[in-house]
Design goal:
- By secondary structure, the chain is an alpha+beta fold.
- It has helices at residues 18-30, 38-44, 48-56, 99-114, 128-136, and strands at residues 9-12, 60-66, 69-77, 82-90, 118-123, 140-147, 152-160.
- A seven-stranded mixed sheet has the order 1-2-3-4-5-7-6.
- Strand 6 and strand 7 (152-160) form a beta hairpin.
- It is globular and about 40 Å long.
- The N and C termini lie far apart (38 Å).
Length: 161
């Protein structure tokens, strides 16, 4: 019997990880096909060429591995004294093991090290687990809109540092 959650290793991803990350995003977002608009799903599950472009465009992508397997990822960017956390995904085969929490906490820690004053995340309110995760980390809803290009309502959650 295990009493402790497995702990993934979180490290900075590189362009060499692009194909594996794209596959991860496809698996992670594919499980929501019955809940979310296909335009949102298509946007959140990018091709490996798009993921590779992130590394040339100033994004930081962190990958979580456990027992040698890629189990999750998160992307951070730093516009105007803030940190935007997005593209948080956990492989469905490794869900509910705390890997999403570890990645979200890592992103907040990275934001603190960068000296920003706020961390933002956009979420679909249909993603109950993600909403609960970020609320548990102290994020609160600070806005929202209906994104016509996604066909979904999204909310902006914010954490003041």
């Amino acid at each position: 019997m295990r009493f402790f959650r497995p702990v993934p290793k979180v490290s900075l991803a590189t362009a060499a990880d692009a194909a594996a990350l794209a596959e991860l995003y496809g698996r992670a977002w594919g499980q929501y096909a019955d809940r979310l608009d296909p335009r949102l799903l298509a946007d959140q599950a990018p091709a490996s060429e798009e993921v590779e472009a992130w590394f040339r465009g100033g994004f930081e992508v962190y990958r979580a591995t456990h027992d040698g397997a890629l189990v999750g990822a998160v992307r951070c960017s730093f516009p105007a004294s803030t940190c935007l956390v997005d593209r948080l995904a956990v492989d469905p085969g490794h869900a509910r093991k705390g890997f999403g929490q570890v990645l979200a906490e890592h992103a907040v820690s990275r934001a603190r090290r960068a000296g920003v004053t706020r961390v933002w995340v956009y979420l679909s309110p249909k993603l109950d687990d993600a909403l609960a995760l970020f609320q548990g980390l102290g994020f609160h809803e600070s806005g929202g809109n209906r994104a016509p290009y996604w066909g979904e309502k999204v909310i902006l959650m914010e954490l003041a540092l």
